[in-house]
Design goal:
The complex is a heterodimer. Chain A has helices at about 10-45, 50-80, 105-115, 140-170, 175-185, 190-200, 205-215, 225-255, 260-265, 270-300, 305-310, 320-330, 335-360, 365-370; strands spanning about 120, 125-130. By secondary structure, chain A is an all-alpha fold. Chain B is mainly α. Chain B has 3 domains: about 1-60; about 70-105, no CATH class; about 115-325, MetI-like fold (Orthogonal Bundle). The chains are: A mainly alpha, B mainly alpha. Chains A and B meet through helix 1, helix 2, helix 4, helix 5 and helix 6 of A and helix 4, helix 5, helix 6, helix 7 and helix 8 of B.
């Protein structure tokens, strides 16, 4: 029975048959678990914080099973030779012949991590390792491009968002309307943004080129040229990120009392001085977490690049995370999951190092966990 | 910056000489707008000249409004254009016109989408997954966050820092092990596999936001209830949870919005046509540009409208929810 748009009664029943038992099972499971655990901890062991541990248990189990276990498994994968050809070896259900004599080992880990950085022939390093196919996909090139990507994006997000927030903080009419319109890019589903802009950067039918020709510029085949493609992706991500800053900074600006400015003006401070010595310091508690989050989000921005350019042309718009995705699941590679796992650990450490240096030097997230 | 409205001495002096700077700017602005009109007439009624003239005029007359209008256009134009493309008649799909309301507007693309693509099935799959993730996320996180907010138990601080760190984990780093685990369990192409994958990121985030909200509810409330004979769980159930409805709905919404348009994990886990979610379906439509742009546009409008409405309706709470997680005042 084929309904309209492929949605037949069978399909609906099939989906509901999977979803409803799962949801009910989880909720009943949570209640039963908490009940049993509380009786055990409080009545049998007489623990002081029994209720706290009981309440934590469901979340702890979920995080353990769906977050910590995969992370641990990812490290284990870095010690494996998992790729498309050897997938059967690692499956709990034996599906076929397996040529590996051992599944996990230090030798695989050494090979995987070396491959991230170096190309080795006959035990000698002959150059930077290629993470994908071209010489443009080596570790230093990708790291450099990721840093460029992050810095450019964050600077534009910040300055654009701050400028808009400062204007919106003036006494001005139609504020609500402007705000609703400017926030729209943030509210759009990310997939729609990426797919739509991909079309709009189309050399012939996209509006970007039509507009450029309208003001007398030469059209550019945006997504065919490496530099233009990178500019296009950066542009879209800036467009996406500005509303977030505007909203956050506007909230911060509105919380600054007018009295500070009045007092400063009495003392003869000009607009620039007021901005520098009142606005910026008082915005700091909002600004630092916003920038921290933005750096992390931008560094990890995977879907936009994968959808808009797929990392191309010539693998020249990849940043670290999109190269990782392509190495694991892209068409260019043979699903080298063991190698990709090692690569992902390296990426995480880069971000982690940044976070430690940045957070300790700015004291940025102190307010969050000091409570 | 400041919004002090003191009479400006310079403005007063100019007024005595004739025109204020405000009036001068208004005149120049109007002149530029008229210039745009003239250029439009001179160039076969090309509306672009008039629009640019109006915008430049506004920039001169009222710079703040000019900047905001210009940026609003940048924000909204791509969205309006998708709506416009979805309304184009099939003969004009590849037209290069920039008009917002296309000539001969029709709903042809929408009916093509429903008749030629399993769009409703994509949307249904997405909806089931999304609702399941949102409900489970709230159910699992609600009590855990309460424990984080009210007790100072052993391991609390490291656990909170860990929750924060999970926000930093690159998607690619979780996709690899989750893909392998789901594949080993034989759950690829099962929507249940995707639900389990999404829960991994939904739960830590939900706990974080809910904890921030519980922190703002004074503990005196429960203590008063407990003096009146409630036990702690009754107090939580009868007082804290009802008070937290805004936060619970924020968490539900965040998880909803996150799962509704997730692409990367879905692409890796779901490959069969019958289980595709809408992001995968629309991505597939884009693959063949010439024929399917209208259908793609129609589909995007249909999946985006509910999200935009939700966002507008809840935007105050969504934004305060976000700041709740990151900033404490």
């Amino acid at each position: 029975m084929e309904g309209i748009s492929g949605l037949s009664g069978d399909v609906i029943l099939d989906t509901l048959g999977q979803i409803i038992p799962l949801v009910i099972g989880v909720i009943v499971g949570v209640v039963v678990l908490e009940f049993l655990l509380y009786n055990l901890l409080a009545k049998t062991f007489k623990l002081k914080n029994a209720l706290a541990y009981t309440l934590l248990a469901p979340a702890a189990i979920a995080i353990l099973a769906f977050m910590l276990y995969p992370l641990f498994f990812n490290v284990l994968l870095a010690f494996s030779d998992l790729k498309r050809d050897t997938f059967n070896c690692y499956s709990p259900i034996a599906l076929g012949e397996c040529e590996l004599d051992h599944l996990y080992g230090l030798d695989y880990a050494v090979e995987n991590f070396t491959d991230v950085f170096f190309r080795v022939r006959d035990g000698e390093i002959i150059g930077w390792g290629r993470l994908l196919r071209t010489a443009d996909s080596t570790f230093p090139v990708l790291l450099g491009r990721t840093i460029l990507w992050t810095v450019v994006n964050v600077i534009f997000h910040f300055s654009g968002g701050l400028a808009l927030a400062l204007i919106m903080n003036q006494k001005i009419r139609f504020k609500g309307i402007y705000r609703a319109l400017i926030v729209i890019p943030w509210a759009l589903p990310g997939v729609i943004t990426a797919l739509t802009w991909k079309q709009e950067f189309h050399a012939e039918y996209g509006f970007v080129n039509t507009l450029m020709q309208g003001i007398g510029l030469e059209p550019i085949s945006w997504l065919r040229d490496p530099v233009a493609a990178f500019v296009a992706v950066v542009f879209v991500n800036i467009w996406l990120g500005i509303p977030f800053y505007m909203v956050m900074l506007l909230g911060g600006l509105q919380s600054i009392s007018v009295e500070y400015y009045e007092a400063a003006q009495m003392d003869g401070a000009g607009a620039l001085e007021r901005f520098r010595f009142i606005t910026m310091p008082l915005l700091r508690p909002i600004l630092i977490p916003a920038v921290t989050l933005d750096v992390i989000w931008t560094f990890n921005k995977l879907d936009l690049i994968v959808i808009m350019t797929g990392g191309g042309p010539e693998e020249k718009t990849n940043i670290l995370v999109s190269a990782l995705y392509n190495a694991a699941f892209g068409t260019a590679a043979t699903q080298q999951l063991g190698f990709a796992a090692a690569f992902s650990i390296v990426i995480f450490f880069i971000l982690f190092l940044f976070a430690i240096v940045w957070i300790t030097s700015s004291g940025g997230l102190k307010e969050i966990y000091d409570r | 910056m400041s919004t002090i409205t003191q009479p400006k001495p310079t403005a007063v002096r100019r007024q005595q000489n004739g025109l204020t700077s405000q009036q001068i700017r208004a005149v120049i602005g109007a002149a530029i707008a008229v210039g745009g009109l003239v250029l439009m007439v001179a160039n076969q009624m090309n509306v672009a000249f008039l629009l640019v003239g109006l915008l430049l005029g506004l920039l001169v007359w009222k710079p703040f409004h000019g900047v905001l209008v210009a940026y609003s256009i940048i924000s909204v134009y791509p969205v309006l254009r998708i709506v416009s493309i979805s309304l184009r008649p099939s003969t004009g799909l590849l037209s290069r016109s920039l008009d917002i309301i296309p000539a001969g507007a029709s709903l042809q693309s929408y009916s093509n989408l429903f008749n030629e693509e399993p769009f409703l099935q994509w949307a249904w799959n997405s909806l089931s997954i999304t609702v399941a993730v949102s409900v489970i996320g709230v159910a699992v996180a609600a009590t855990g966050a309460y424990a984080f907010s009210r007790w100072r138990f052993f391991g609390r601080r490291p656990a909170l820092i860990f929750l924060l760190t999970t926000q930093m984990i690159p998607a690619g780093m979780l996709v690899i092990p989750i893909y392998v685990i789901v594949a080993q369990l034989g759950l690829t192409n099962q929507i249940i596999g995707l639900v389990l994958a999404y829960i991994s990121t939904a739960v830590p985030f939900s706990i974080w936001i809910l904890k921030g909200y519980y922190d703002t509810i004074p503990p005196d409330l429960e203590e008063a209830a407990m003096v009146d004979g409630c036990n702690r769980m009754e107090a939580f159930w009868r007082i804290i949870l009802p008070l937290s409805t805004p936060a619970l709905s924020i968490v539900f919404l965040f998880n909803f919005l996150g799962a509704w348009s997730e692409f990367i994990v879905a692409k890796v886990i779901l490959t069969a046509q019958s289980v595709m979610t809408w992001p995968l379906g629309l991505n597939q439509l884009i693959g063949t540009f010439q024929t399917d742009w209208g259908k793609y546009a129609a589909g995007s409008v249909l999946v985006t409208v509910p999200v935009l409405l939700l966002f507008m309706w809840q935007s105050k709470y969504l934004i305060s929810g976000l700041t709740l997680g990151s900033v404490k005042s």
